[in-house]
Amino acid sequence: MNASIVEDRSHPRLPDLLGAYHLANQAEKGTPAAAVAGLPAVYRGEVDDPAAAFTADTVLLATPPGHALPAACVVLKAAHGDRAPEIKRLWVTPEARRQGLARALMAEALRRAAASGAPAVRLTVWNWRQEPLALYRSLGFETVATWDARPDLLCLEKPLRDRPERAARPTADDPIELLTPDAVRAHAAGGLSALLLDAVDSGASVGFLSPLAADEAAAWWTGVAEEADRGVRDVWAAHGPDGSLTGVVTLVRAGAANGRHRGEIARLLVHRSARGRGLARRLLGAAEARAAATGLGLLVLDTQTGSPAERLYRATGWTAAGTVPDYAADPSGVLRATTLYYKRLG
């Protein structure tokens, strides 16, 4: 989707968007207001005069293709003292959701923050807002020490410059564990969804088209939890120091009676912030070891031909069995070839 994004804190549509945001937010917090006039004074001031309320800030609005009026907004609050710039007031009208407007606005806000020389950008989000939280995680935001102690409010930050200490951190800091079905459910709308959204956003062919909605990603992982309950699929996840998920892999067991010696490696995902440190190899190794320990003698997988994943599989003893042209569409909808791999265990 190619939304039109403009910077305009005086746009006549902006008061409506901000008013809808604040009314929805108050209702979610359990302190509903019937109209803008009933909002707390600080929020009412933003709606009444956005240009004055955000005079030092960047206000972006997004208009979907074929529409005359903006349907989404976000505010990038200017850095103040030693505080990083902060993203606020991300709102998409209900009828314009699932079109990638929120992601497009976030990408532009992050681009502008980086261009300003800011080392990081921050935001807050209520912990019950799972869809926005999944979006932020997919964009590289991590939970940090709170600067706002209100209950249920999460403080997130995304570095905009490389942090040497992170690049040098060994992957041993990212322990890998076999998730129980309940753990998969608990992470479905958060860390697992964020990993899937990040993969699709970075162009990986993992079964979904872009833009992938957070609720669709969460629903897929909920289905995986049900498969784990039935013993059909195992799930391993890697955890970063802050508890966020940095990678995942699943092992699917063949259901046919004549194929119970066989399993399939599926959805090997490593977040962009954790790549280049051998985490994919460690996840793959965990799945292979479990497969061998539980009596599987053969593993198979498929991956987009020419993708970086092919180097990993070839380097870890997998054998290419053949290539199928136009097998699956990449996230942009372009048909790509897929290479089938197998590996004998034991």
- Catalogue the unreliable spans: 163-172
| Global outline | elongated
Helix content range of the residues, please? 25-40%
- Please indicate the count of domains: 2
Our estimate of the beta-strand percent is 25-35%
Separation of termini? 48 Å
The number of helical runs is: 11
The fourth-level CATH homologous superfamily of the largest domain is: Gcn5-related N-acetyltransferase (GNAT)
**What CATH architecture of the largest domain would you give?**
3-Layer(aba) Sandwich
**CATH level 3 topology of the largest domain:** Aminopeptidase
Structural class label:
alpha+beta
* Sequence of secondary-structure elements: EHHHEEEHEHEEHEHHHEEEHEHEE
Query: Could you report the average pLDDT, rounded to the nearest whole number?
Result: 90
CATH class of the largest domain: Alpha Beta
Topology of this structure?
Elements (H helix, E strand, L loop, with lengths): L3 E4 L6 H15 L12 H8 L1 H4 L4 E6 L8 E6 L8 E7 L8 H15 L4 E7 L3 H9 L3 E2 L9 E7 L4 H5 L7 E3 L2 H8 L2 H11 L12 H16 L3 E7 L5 E9 L8 E9 L8 H15 L4 E7 L3 H8 L3 E11 L5 E10 L2
Parallel strand pairs: 11-12
Antiparallel strand pairs: 1-2, 2-3, 3-4, 5-7, 6-7, 8-9, 9-10, 10-11, 12-14, 13-14
Account of the protein in words:
- The chain is an alpha+beta fold.
- It has 2 domains: 4-118, 3-Layer(aba) Sandwich (Aminopeptidase); 170-344, Aminopeptidase (3-Layer(aba) Sandwich).
- Helices cover 33% and strands 27% of the residues.
- The protein is built from 11 helices and 14 strands.
- The chain has a 7-stranded mixed β-sheet with strand order 8-9-10-11-12-14-13, with helices on both faces. A 4-stranded antiparallel β-sheet has the order 1-2-3-4, sandwiched between helices. The chain has a 3-stranded antiparallel β-sheet with strand order 5-7-6.
- Strand 10 and strand 11 (262-270) form a beta hairpin.
- Helix 1 packs antiparallel against helix 2 (41-48).
